[in-house]
Design a protein that fits this description.
The structure holds two protein chains of two kinds. Chain A is α+β, with helices and mostly antiparallel strands. Chain A has nine helices and five strands. In chain B, α1 packs parallel to α3. Chain B is built from three helices and no strands. The chains are: A alpha+beta, B mainly alpha.
Chain lengths: 353, 132
């Protein structure tokens, strides 16, 4: 009996020990499972990125970097190392994808910039034509008016002549009748000229209405500038061009600013008596000297764009203030970004820049 | 008898030097890990600060906060002399920050492009109105 029990116990223990060992962690641990899963995900993400033609084209270097990271993760000897390296590999793949995405959008911006420029050219041409047509109609109207006046003057003279004749002598009735006839002819002519003048006036009126629409548009432009971003101050209308309109740390203007500057230039053409002051500001990071330089360079960049739109340089003054007059605190990233700005002040009429 | 004693002494010396060598290696490994951890932590601090500066106005702050949290944990691990843990946390924080920076850059480019599309829409509308 005892022997049998011993055997059972031995077998039981013999069977039990492996189970205990498994529970004690000699099978795959949670950590191993997690690490393998993360590695699998990293490999899948990398494969997907590699298959994306944009990533291969625009993010070669970050993609290679991610590939190496996947390799290293695959060759990890321990699972905590594998998990860590797989995490890095996943992130590096995400970085490669983001780099490619950004470049694709930058390319789109180039095409959009060209389209914007085309439309601006068309708009300018359209406005020039409208103004020219209005002017020409005005001239025509004036010419017709002058003609009508001349004919009326003629008619008056003939009438006076006729009257003088009838007054002078009764016998010269026939002559008087002839003068009368001439006067009637002149009158008819005068009426015809007046009719012409009236037609020209009507046309001139419609053209004037169009011109008025253009002026109303200029008023609307002023409203737009004031309403959207400009603040009315005693010095004039202040537009702020924010840091986002420049490539980080440079004086290179984004093409997204082209339209704003075009509108500003159009406004300045409508109001040739108004000049602008362009003032650049930075935050307090870096040296005072570099900040002074950068702030002036940014102001000049805006000025150059205005000159490209045919605004005379004599109407523009640029200044760099560097770190002076911050708008917000320099202790937070958000405050620093606010301080990095260019202010365009549309001066009141007649004020020298 | 003499041989046995000198053998023992020799064995003991070898053993002692072996232990010393191992201690030295372990010691070097420890200080090696420490300086690596220091470097990695400093790298991640830089990466986070660059990520924050270049993209203050975009919405990817969650990724930056991720990175910052890991940096805090890395510093704690460093203080507790867990240098491998500190190194790995710092490495993770660096890639998190790099990703945040690039993602914000892509986001900004998209915002620019949308603004430009809006501008184009306005220009087209104006042209249509004046072409009566």
């Amino acid at each position: 009996m005892t022997n049998q029990m011993h055997s059972v116990i031995k077998v039981g223990v013999g069977l039990l020990i492996p189970f205990l060992l498994i529970f004690a962690g000699c099978g795959p641990s949670n950590q191993e499972i997690m690490a393998r899963e993360r590695l699998a995900n990293a490999k899948a993400a990398y494969a997907s990125a590699k298959a994306n033609p944009n990533v291969e084209t625009y993010a070669q270097v970050p993609l290679r970097d991610a590939g190496r990271a996947v390799e290293m993760a695959s060759q990890a000897e321990e699972f905590d190392e594998m998990d860590h390296l797989a995490y890095l590999a996943e992130r590096k793949t995400q970085i490669a994808v983001a780099v490619a995405e950004e470049q694709v959008v930058e390319n789109e911006k180039i095409a959009l910039s060209r389209e914007t420029e085309q439309l601006i050219i068309q708009t300018s041409a359209r406005e020039q034509t409208a103004k020219r047509e209005a002017r020409e109609s005005n001239w025509d109207a004036r010419a017709s008016n002058a003609q009508a006046i001349a004919s009326s003057e003629q008619a008056r003279k003939s009438n006076a002549e006729a009257w003088a004749q009838t007054q002078k002598t009764q016998i010269a009735n026939t002559e008087a009748r002839e003068s009368d006839a001439r006067a009637r002819e002149s009158n008819a002519q005068a009426i015809a000229s007046s009719e012409q003048a009236r037609k020209s006036n009507v046309e001139a009126l419609s053209q004037t209405q169009k011109a008025e629409m253009a002026t109303a548009k200029a008023d609307k432009l002023e409203q737009e500038i004031t309403a959207m971003k400009g603040r009315m101050t005693e010095r004039g209308i202040v537009l702020t061009i924010g840091d986002v309109m420049f490539a980080t740390g440079t004086a290179t203007l984004s093409p997204a600013a082209d339209y704003e500057i075009y509108k500003l230039a159009a406004f300045m053409k409508e109001y040739p008596d108004r000049n602008v002051l362009i003032e650049g500001y930075t935050d307090s990071t870096g040296t005072e000297g570099t900040n002074l330089d950068l702030s002036l360079e940014r102001a000049n960049a805006v000025s150059d764009k205005l000159v490209d739109r045919e605004i005379s340089r004599s109407r523009i003054t640029t200044r760099g203030f560097g770190e002076e007059s911050p708008m917000a605190g320099n202790d937070t990233a958000a405050g620093r970004e606010q301080n990095r700005r260019v202010e365009v002040i549309i001066l009141n009429e007649g004020v020298a820049p | 008898m003499q041989n046995k004693t000198s053998n023992r002494k020799l064995n003991f010396s070898i053993f002692f030097m072996g232990v010393l060598a191992m201690l030295l290696m372990v010691g070097c490994a420890f200080s090696g890990n420490r300086s690596i951890a220091t470097i990695k932590i400093s790298e991640s601090e830089k990466a986070i600060s660059v990520a924050k500066e270049s993209n203050a106005s975009t919405n990817i702050t969650a990724d930056v906060r991720n990175a910052e949290n890991k940096l805090v944990q890395a510093n704690s691990a460093f203080t507790a002399e867990e240098y491998l843990k500190a190194t790995r946390l710092a490495e993770k924080a660096t890639v998190d920050a790099d990703y945040a920076r690039i993602a914000a850059k892509a986001e900004k480019a998209k915002t620019d492009a949308n603004q430009m599309r809006q501008n184009i829409g306005e220009l087209r509308q104006d042209l249509e109105r004046t072409s009566r």
